[in-house]
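Exercise 3.2. Students should predict the tertiary structure of the chain below and write it as structure tokens, then compare their answer with the key that follows.

Predict this chain's 3D structure.
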Amino acid sequence: MGGLAITRVDHLSDEDISALSRILIGVVNAGASVGFVPPLGLDDATAYWQGVLKPGCVLLIARRDGAIVGTGQLDLAMRANGRTRAEVCKVLVDADAQGQGIGKALMAALEVEAREEGRSLLHLDTSTNDKSNRLYLAMGYTAAGTIPNWAVDADGVRHATTFYYKVLDE
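Answer key:
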């Protein structure tokens, strides 16, 4: 994975938002279940990235040779009784860069960030039929269960979602 750098960011430039919007549109329009339904337009994708950096959000960006090729987020639980956990969100890899280990590298970097934030439990959810399920299992996540009809696609078809968790070594 020569030239890949993953960094935590606390500010997004217009150029970053444009690149992240392109990636989000690509993965959503290819069928990924990440909170949007296809066809996702540029205005909605841009609005998402413009508002993403808020208290409790850890945002990582993966760049290869300076170009953004992926991203991942932690949504830190902020309530007093939940400050040991975080949700893994929006782990996205550009279509042209998929299958090169970038998703795995982002997940590993999110685990490092979670530990640095004092979090010892990560959780996430994904469409039960999504190929990402293999990655989460391979990285030591445990399937906690599946809920039917959790999300709908652009045609209104309901799909099951599987929830995962991982207890981080302390």
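Discussion points: The longest helix spans residues 14-29. The domain at 4-120 is CATH 3.40.630.30 (Aminopeptidase).
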